[in-house]
UniProtKB/TrEMBL annotation:
UniProt superkingdom: Eukaryota
One protein family per Pfam: KR
Alphabetical list of SUPFAM superfamilies matching this protein: NAD(P)-binding Rossmann-fold domains (SSF51735)
Parts forming coiled coils: none
Record's protein name: Fumagillin dodecapentaenoate synthase
Organism: Lachnellula subtilissima
A single GO molecular function term of this UniProt record: fatty acid synthase activity
The gene coding this protein: af370_0
Matching InterPro entries: KR_dom, NAD(P)-bd_dom_sf, PKS_KR, PKS_NRPS_Biosynth_Enz
Swiss-Prot/TrEMBL GO biological process terms: fatty acid biosynthetic process; secondary metabolite biosynthetic process
Span of domain Ketoreductase: 1-147
Amino acid sequence: MAKNGVKHLAVILRSGHSDERSQGVVKEIEALGCQIDLLSADVAIASDVDKAFQATTVPIAGIVQGAMVLRDRMFSSMHVSDYHGALACKVQGTWNLHNVAEKLGLKLDFFTMLSSISGVVGQKGQANYTAGNAFLDAFASYRHGLG
């Protein structure tokens, strides 16, 4: 996005931004003349999303939902916590991003969700990930229906 002229980004990461790889990406983005708000939050927690949105230094004009947790295991041996752990960031996280944006009255230019073909064709050992992506596909239709 920064390579295409975006001048400000706000990035939410559950794990933070202090690791070497994240800092390298931040330096690259800033070198392109883009300011970046580094926000630590869990999108699966509505109050975290609300705080993060309110901590941005410029109004939010668009959302890219790219949260993902992989807990690969055959469904027959998958723990309930593995199933829900992978779903939370995609399902609850997407609802939280949507609901907080609505609550704050944000006029979004885009609400993009990064899904996977696995939501259509499935993947061995990824029933949870597949279900999350199928949800994102359906949610895209829901938002489209809202205009």
